[in-house]
């Protein structure tokens, strides 16, 4: 009799586990999956926004991060994804230049400012004048204009100033995008880098670099937009995320990572 009761108890717990697992599988199946493509510079802020947005909602957000060129190619090739968030609006141009309008709706989320960075203590004595980047004493790394929004905006700005070709002579390497630029300074691979100012808010970078603002770029900084893709399988959920991205809570989070909604005024 005792063995019979033991068997009954064991079978009861097995049945409970099966019901629990089945419920978990059903709950998982009910969750909608939102895919967001973002440039690497946007990953830290999106990780926090993702966690906040998922709470209280039956959805899971998956991030795919890379440079704007690779992301554009991925969206075009897979014809999948819900939201695109490049580090500058030029990422939209790169995607929509492929003879198809992939962005069906978008919201403004902030500005990105281009700055010059040197290792903490400014060992080479850079004086903050962008025109002196052409001096032969500087070893510089910039982002590749073909692979990232940062590279594109860097080239566009330097060309506008008539400096690009001369600065290029001092460029010792091209990075894929903003990721790794501070590390290049710390590894003594360059003396100066041109980077997004927002990069100092990630990975403790603020403790390792000196930041030199570029006043005329700050007056016309790169605009950042989040856009819903025409390939979205959950356009209503994507719209909810864009609405959240412009909420007071999200605006404060963007600001925390260096993405302000107001231009810096230089007098």
Automatic annotation (TrEMBL):
Keyword Aminoacyl-tRNA synthetase among UniProt keywords: no
NCBIfam families: modA
Record keywords: Metal-binding, Molybdenum, Signal
Name assigned to this protein: Molybdate transporter periplasmic protein
Family, similarity comment: Belongs to the bacterial solute-binding protein ModA family.
Gene Ontology terms, MF aspect: metal ion binding; molybdate ion binding
Residues involved in molybdate binding: 68
Spans through the membrane: none
Alphabetical GO biological process terms: molybdate ion transport
Alphabetical list of InterPro entries matching this protein: ModA (IPR005950), ModA/WtpA (IPR050682)
């Amino acid at each position: 009799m005792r063995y019979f009761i033991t068997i009954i108890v064991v079978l009861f717990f097995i049945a409970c586990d099966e019901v629990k697992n089945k419920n978990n599988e059903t709950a998982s199946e009910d969750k909608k999956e939102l895919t967001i493509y973002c440039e690497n510079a946007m990953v830290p802020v999106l990780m926090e926004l993702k966690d906040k947005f998922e709470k209280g909602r039956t959805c899971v957000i998956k991030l795919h991060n890379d440079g704007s060129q690779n992301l554009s190619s991925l969206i075009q090739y897979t014809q999948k994804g819900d939201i695109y968030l490049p580090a500058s609006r030029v990422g939209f141009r790169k995607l929509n230049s492929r003879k198809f309008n992939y962005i069906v709706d978008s919201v403004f989320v902030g500005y990105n400012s281009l700055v010059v960075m040197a290792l903490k203590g400014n060992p080479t004595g850079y004086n903050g004048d962008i025109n002196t980047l052409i001096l032969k004493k500087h070893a510089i790394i910039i982002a590749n204009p073909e692979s990232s929004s940062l590279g594109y905006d860097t080239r566009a700005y330097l060309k506008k100033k008539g400096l690009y070709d001369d600065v290029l002579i001092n460029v010792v390497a091209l990075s894929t995008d903003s990721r790794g630029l501070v590390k290049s300074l710390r590894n003594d691979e360059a003396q100066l880098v041109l980077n997004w100012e927002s990069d100092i808010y990630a990975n403790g970078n603020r403790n390792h670099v000196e930041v030199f603002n570029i006043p005329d770029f700050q007056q016309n900084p790169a605009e950042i937009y989040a856009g819903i893709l025409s390939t979205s399988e959950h356009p209503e959920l994507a719209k909810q995320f864009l609405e959240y991205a412009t909420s007071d809570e999200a605006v404060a989070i963007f600001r925390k990572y260096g993405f302000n909604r107001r231009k810096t005024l230089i007098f």
